[in-house]
Amino acid sequence: MPLSAEVRPADLSPADEAFAARLRERLPPSAFREATEAELTEPRGRFRGDGLLVLPGSTAEVATVLALCHEARVPVVPRGGGTGLVGGQIMPPGGPRPVILGLERMARIRSIHPEENVLVAEAGATLASVQEAAPGPGGSFPFRWPPRDRRGSAGSSPPMRGEPRFCAGAMRAPSASGSRP
């Protein structure tokens, strides 16, 4: 089915044990752990989802997961720092069991360019690590959401899009294949 076609839950397959075994053949053991209750429950406690938590450690591993999910028609729910407050990070009940694509292991500061006031961080980097590594004298990453050591930088992006300081030095993230925009 082409990517532009409408996809209905009935068209999708669950992330069952057979699919999990396929992923385990291609990814290291560190890419798997049981999902916690916090990762499966909507923050207000209104509903609970299910899913196979997969924690890639590189863009190559993300690409592997996404390729296998696409091939098998398994839904994917991306998970950043868990800062969403309205349940968008939880697959609605009644749908096929998704892969929860957790980005917490992708936490490196990839590069720092003080002359341009640019820092490139992976999606799982905490705000604390980004703030500590911010380039140059007076360099900063201006957002202060507690607890700074628990939230991924990917979760910081949506509220910052309209911020003038953010737009002036807009971040560019590599795609799942590792290429740059």
TrEMBL record:
Q: Which residues form the FAD-binding PCMH-type domain?
A: 46-181
Does the keyword section mention ATP-binding? Answer: no
Instruction: Give positions of region: Disordered.
Output: 131-181
| Database matches in Gene3D superfamilies | 3.30.465.10
Q: Which GO terms describe its biological process?
A: respiratory electron transport chain
Q: Which GO terms describe its molecular function?
A: FAD binding
| SUPFAM superfamilies tied to this protein | FAD-binding/transporter-associated domain-like (SSF56176)
**Known PROSITE patterns for this protein?**
FAD_PCMH
**This protein's superkingdom?**
Bacteria
Q: Which InterPro entries match?
A: FAD-bd_PCMH, FAD-bd_PCMH-like_sf, FAD-bd_PCMH_sub2, FAD-oxidored/transferase_4, Oxid_FAD_bind_N
Q: Which controlled-vocabulary keywords does the entry list?
A: FAD, Flavoprotein
**Annotated protein name in UniProt:** FAD/FMN-containing dehydrogenase
User: What is the organism field in this record?
Assistant: Rubellimicrobium thermophilum DSM 16684
Q: What is the lineage of its organism?
A: Bacteria, Pseudomonadati, Pseudomonadota, Alphaproteobacteria, Rhodobacterales
